[in-house]
Design brief:
The protein is mainly alpha-helical. It has one domain. The longest helix has 31 residues. It is globular and about 65 Å long. It is a multi-pass membrane protein. InterPro entries: Integral_membrane_TerC, Integral_membrane_YjbE.
Amino acid sequence: MPEFIADIHWSAVIQIVVIDLLLGGDNAVVIALACRDLDPRQRVQGIVYGTIGAIVLRTVLVAFAVVLLDLPFLKMLGGVLLLYIGIRLLQPDDAERGEVAAADRLLSAIRTIIVADLVMSIDNVVAIAGAAENAPPHHRIYLVILGLLVSIPLVVGGSTLLLRLIERFPVIVLGGAGLLGWIAGGLIVDDPFIDRFDWLQSDLAAYLSSAVGAALVVGVGLAIKSARAKRGAAGI
């Protein structure tokens, strides 16, 4: 162990931590949105367990990053899944009507965090894998794990701060859901299958795709929320 520590490529570790923090803002949004309806005690559990689970999956993804990014329709499917998650996170918690047990709510929040992070990490892991390329091959996976572990407290802290802001400014939930839609639109247009369409390979196409994704999540999410509220008021 001392020999391993002495041989650590610290510049690669620092790069991985910085990359994960720079690209982790959207992850903090997902964590905060998924945990906002939990009890205060469960919020801590949801944030910590969800973050750890997401970090573990991201570490596994790094090992397959290059292969995964070359698979047609993977990003497209991930984008569609992220659209669904964004719409779902805009909906009120069913637990308010006593339909969902506390333990189920916690597990649901953790699952949402892990799945969303998995989808959003498809591109992020490439940057992390690239930062580890300068290190000796037998050290790379350990550097990735170390770098991601170091970033956990900062991601957790960011999520906790965002939760407090959501309590004071609920409109942040709308912005967070829109951000997920924006990311989803970018993923879809960046799929290898789309590369064959030259007219979609432009910054304008990428921007429009992201904007449509954000508008779709917010529009559909609010429409479903309104319909559910009307049904609730009518006792349906």
